[in-house]
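Reopening this one. Same input as before:
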Amino acid sequence: MNDEISTTKPRPAVPHDSAAPFVIRHSSFLILLCTFLFTLSTLAQDPSLRFGGAIPQEVETVYERGLAWLASKQSDSGSWQGGHDGAGIDGICLMAFLASGEDPNFGRYAPNIRRALRAIIRSQDATSGYLPNSMYHHGFAMLSLSEAYGAVDESLLWEGGKPVRSIGQALDLAIRCASTSQKANRWGGWRYMPNSTDADTSVTGAVLMGLLAARNAGMDVPDEVVNTALEYMRRSTGKDGSVAYSGGFGGFGESMNRSAIATLVAAVSKHKDSEEFKATLKHITDRLEHSEGGYKEYFRYYMAQALFQGDYVSWQKWNAATARVLGESQSADGSFGSGAYETGMSLLALGLNYRFLPIYER
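Same output, byte for byte:
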């Protein structure tokens, strides 16, 4: 490089020449630093990952038709009737509305959202905090309350009627119910009922996601409760990324559902550096073409979130394929399967295209 610098040309006059080397060196350094930081930030975060890009038209179409069907099937009491009645189904349908950014206070579906919230809160046992009809329901209902907490104007929630309790009070009761149930469980997880003494990773994942969402919403969730449940999930995870159903010992059986759940709870609880997270994430990203025979809506719901949290590029591929499948399988009336559960879960499998629910933040 020295050969390119002519020593025969006179230097241009520079005011305050004694300071010029300092200014030039530091200006160059600042330019290099800014370039480095810009490049680093560009590589570190694709803006579409956080904020989302343009919503594919097939996703918009599926979602619009699905929400219209859910709104038409909601009862006056705010619940959805069918084969899987309960607070959890009401919570799933509630989240389907919130996930696409529907305004819970003044939007077109605000009355549906408020009715669903009232139904969930009214169903809660005022003493134990249990949200029926199982701890599956309890977990999903707790998750939905957490996602609504802070977004809903509670002065509008009861629409002139006598309030039963606030969303925050309902959440506090639900957290205490989960904590009390866990203390009586020798495995440190949850099963179907609050007084169950055995546990499985599917129910535990549902309750744990409700607790993590409540904590993210600012509720007081004991660390011990979360950590004990995470330890149960860890013990249930094999080195190959497979996750046992029950018993607390990893590596038995193959289930993409359970591996996706384990990936998700590890990511949301900020344990992406763990060996278990790496194993379950590899297990599901190596099988993007997998098609679940049973519980397909459940599988899509957890797979979408697990991939988004763990591997954004894999999620993009999986999401495009899923949008096509759902677009082709949606009934003419906008529903999926036989009722509200299948429709709500199918819509939530596409909800990450919108990025509105706090639990979807990466």
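So the earlier flakiness isn't reproducible anymore. For the record, Confidence is low (pLDDT under 50) at residues 1-47.
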